Amino acid sequence: MGSEPHPLRPRLFARLSPGVSLGINAAAELVASFDGRTLRLGKFSPNTLGRIAEFSDGVALDASGDPENAREVAALIKRLGLYGLLEYRLTDVAERADLLVVEPQMRGYAPRLGFVEESQPLALSRFAYIRRRGGDMVLESPRAGALFRLCDARVLAFIARLAQARTLEELRDLPDFPGVEVLGLLLDAEILFTPGPGADKGPRAAEGDDGFVLWDFHDLLFHSRSTNGRHATPSGGLYAYSRLVPPLPAVRPAWPGAAVDLTPFDAAPSPFAALLRQRRSIRSYDSQNPISLAEVAQILDRAARILSVRRLRDDFRNGAEFEIARRPYPSGGASYELELYLAVDKCEGLERGFYHYDAARHALVAIPTDERDLAAMLEDGQLAMGAPSSPQILITMAARFGRVSWKYSGFAYALVLKHVGVLMQTLYLVAAEMEIGACAIGAGDIDLFSKMTGVAFHIEGAVGQMAIGRASASALDDD
Ligand SMILES: Cc1cc2nc3c(=O)[nH]c(=O)nc-3n(C[C@H](O)[C@H](O)[C@H](O)COP(=O)(O)O)c2cc1C
Description:
Helices cover 27% and strands 24% of the residues. It is an alpha+beta fold. The longest helix has 22 residues, at 412-433. Flavin mononucleotide (FMN) binds at residues 280-281, 283, 384-385, 424, 439-442.
């Protein structure tokens, strides 16, 4: 909240997201209500409580006035933002019309009007796209922490002019220039970028981060939208269209052609076939008798340890040379891009904490992490399984994407997810053989994982999870 804003410049206002309301409870605390839930926000001064109606329409982020009240309102905005309860509108004050509305997609995202110099070139990120959502046009990017609802057709049209890099000075001369505020907002959200010399001229712009060069547009979008952590769209087992469409039958209706009966070839199951049939997902664990470090070591040795490292030359293509580190499961192009990280709640002989499995040394390396993040990760795992308690160990599979996308174009990310499936089944079978409980988990929080490792979501990102632990007696009785 700075000095008095220019009366005619577009301004940012924070307002409550649709479906959220503010009120005051019997204890004179401020509360937010949404999705049938009530969130206590704490005590505020009468001055601030008197302003809560303003949150329906929007509180100016740059408003000046009583500094005490401004500080409290700013703290309230931050708090509401952390819970994802706000959206922000950039409004043309002169015309009293919204230019765009910012919908945060990541926890704690707050829009900022990034500073743009007159001589600074700007271009649209190659990961940005515009699409129709209901009755709106939205501008999004897997790099951005927010999406932008384009309310003004002139802003929508102007975005197209950013296909080529132009300086702010040049952009100002174009018809329908929407104001530097729009550009500053989009620059801050990494929807726009300032091209660097040389490398950013080609279609594979580094966009200020070499880690993006190898990413295809659809792969980065899929990585950020198909799990939790980088978007705010409800996802998971919501049965969203179950009232409109009946479920498909579990067994595919038979083709009408002649059938060759295979049952006469039935044989007694081999030990391996028996193991396949005996395997099942175990979601509740024996907290009195947790999994031991020795068992963890054996699971990792059998499923994921590096067996050999050698150089490979691809004479079929361009003679490219690279190193491969073979492990017990198959991997497309011998990429072996998956790394295992263990969030340990309970393990006999191993302290609660977060570890990387060093598959070459066959060792667990502790990674210092905030206890609250570790607890949140374990709790997410518990929720995903609908389990009575936390998994004893939650394994996150993280992909070093560049191992795959250095070679493969077009389907690199699909290949990574196939590898996740391969490794999941390998872990399931190893665990089943050792009579250890295991359960795959479909979606994890890629932002939380990135926070815990300090490695960006597009460099080495979470792509799969698996819970393991000593099965509880009740889990073994199921079925
Ligand atoms: C890719 C994948 C994702 C899964 N995600 C979850 C999950 O998020 N939560 C859960 O409780 N089970 C999950 N499961 C376990 C399945 O629900 C389970 O495999 C299925 O119900 C069949 O039961 P079974 O594994 O005991 O044979 C997942 C399994 C796979 C293969």
